[in-house]
Specification:
- The chain folds into two domains: 14-44 and 315-396, Aspartate Aminotransferase, domain 1 (Alpha-Beta Complex); 65-299, Aspartate Aminotransferase, domain 2 (3-Layer(aba) Sandwich).
- The protein has 16 helices and 13 strands.
- It has a seven-stranded mixed β-sheet with strand order 2-10-9-8-7-3-4.
- By secondary structure, it is of the alpha/beta class.
- Bound molecules: (2S)-2-hydroxybutanedioic acid (LMR).
- The site of (2S)-2-hydroxybutanedioic acid (LMR) has 6 residues, from loops.
- (2S)-2-hydroxybutanedioic acid is lined by residues 13, 33-34, 129, 131, 182.
Length: 398
């Protein structure tokens, strides 16, 4: 039956973790997957999560959630993305369902897009998170790309981006990273977001925000929702994928939310019912435990404050490691500019290293990262930063 099945290509991100785990070297370093580590390189369970687990342990049952997921978790998620006092929440204009983290939210949206706008395409930034391509491919939505990153400046290609937005057919779908762009660590400034929003309005484009790193750009989830708030102020209808993998450290719980801002409450009810109908044959209803943790934390002012402190702590440790990596490279006498390590934000540094240089890091130094040169700064620690800098210096020497 299955003799014709060839092995699939390794995943460019999760395949790195597999290779790292298989390496017996005591020196090995994993700066591949975007998953936060403490300064000892260990995974972190946030204190607010531990406390929420204590609180839900006694009274939770194991019943199914509704097809659309936990109502309380969705309510809290919308406050985080649209704003505590959002008129859109008040007017019940948002169709929202709990999703299997950010990936699941994007996939639900892509399937919805295919089902109800079968002739539409999606514009995806170059570069983007590799899985975005898989998601819209499997939903059979044709993909186009738009300019985003400027390799020479290692910053935003704003002119290219604006040209591509202008040249796309009116009414196109665009995938935007709400903050802490993955993999580049490069975000538009507030002023640039305003210009992008203005141009989207003129072209009647639909912005779909993937917000996987809310809190990791500035250390403050509220500030990191700025791009979305600008688009909302400008009167756009938007879509939004939220994930609690990174900002609550709930990676394996698959806790997230998909929301679509509609014209009115009636439309929102219809859209939500269709999203549920897409979810039902795929997974019936989303997982319970992560949703309980999220809603417990966000609905309790004390736990929410603790969470905000802990998110800031994670973001600050990463900023510290950016400085340390740059200083180490400069101390080693690298003639190259490493300014971008500290200019870029969020969890990643888009180093500019070539796939061949990355291969050398892995084969000679047991350092594991994606071949596009992305370093997950969350995997850098006081203990490995000098080793990492030295290896980078060795493979990038002119
Ligand atoms: C990453 O980009 O490393 C993370 O989003 C993990 C993943 O699923 O790819």
């Amino acid at each position: 039956w299955f003799g014709h099945v060839e092995p699939a290509a390794k995943d460019p991100i999760l395949g790195v973790t597999e290779a790292f785990l298989a390496d017996p070297s005591p020196d090995k370093v994993n700066v591949g997957v975007g998953a936060y580590r403490d300064d000892n390189g260990r995974p972190v369970v946030l204190e607010c999560v531990r406390e929420a687990e204590r609180r839900v342990a006694g009274n939770a049952n194991m019943e199914y959630l509704p097809m659309g997921g936990s109502v309380k978790m969705i309510e809290e998620s919308l406050k985080l993305s649209y704003g505590e006092d959002s008129e859109f929440i008040r007017d019940k204009r948002i169709a929202a369902v709990q999703a299997l983290s950010g990936t699941g939210a994007c996939r639900l949206f892509a399937d919805f897009q295919k089902r109800f706008l079968p002739d539409s395409q999606i514009y995806i930034p170059t570069p983007t998170w590799a899985n975005h391509h898989n998601i819209w491919r499997d939903a059979r939505v044709p993909q186009r790309t738009f300019s985003y990153y400027h390799p020479e400046s290692r910053g935003l290609d704003f002119a290219g981006l604006m040209d591509d937005v202008k040249n796309a057919p009116d009414g196109s779908f665009f995938l935007l990273h709400a903050c802490a762009h993955n993999p580049t660590g490069v975000d538009p400034s507030e002023e640039q977001w305003r210009e992008i929003s203005f141009q989207f309005k003129a072209k009647k484009h639909f912005p779909f925000f993937d917000m996987a790193y809310q809190g990791f750009a500035s250390g403050d989830p509220e500030r990191d929702a700025k791009a979305i708030r600008i688009f909302l102020e400008d009167g756009h209808q938007i879509g939004c994928a939220q994930s609690y993998a990174k900002n609550m450290g709930l990676y394996g719980q698959r806790a997230g939310c998909l929301s679509i801002l509609c014209d009115d409450e009636m439309q929102a009810v219809a859209v939500k019912s269709q999203l549920q109908q897409i979810a039902r044959p795929m997974y019936s209803n989303p997982p319970l435990h992560g949703a309980l943790i999220v809603s417990t934390i966000l609905s309790d002012p004390e736990l929410k404050n603790l969470w905000l402190k802990e998110v800031k702590g994670m973001a600050d440790r990463i900023i510290g490691m950016r400085k340390a990596l740059k200083e180490n490279l400069e101390r080693l006498g690298s003639p190259l500019s490493w300014e971008h390590i500290t200019n870029q934000i969020g969890m990643f540094c888009y180093s500019g290293m070539t796939p061949e240089q990355v291969d050398r890091l892995t084969s000679e130094f047991h350092i594991y990262m994606t071949r596009n040169g992305r370093i997950s700064m969350a995997g850098v620690t006081t203990g490995n930063v000098a080793y990492l800098a030295n290896a980078i210096h060795e493979v990038t020497k002119p």
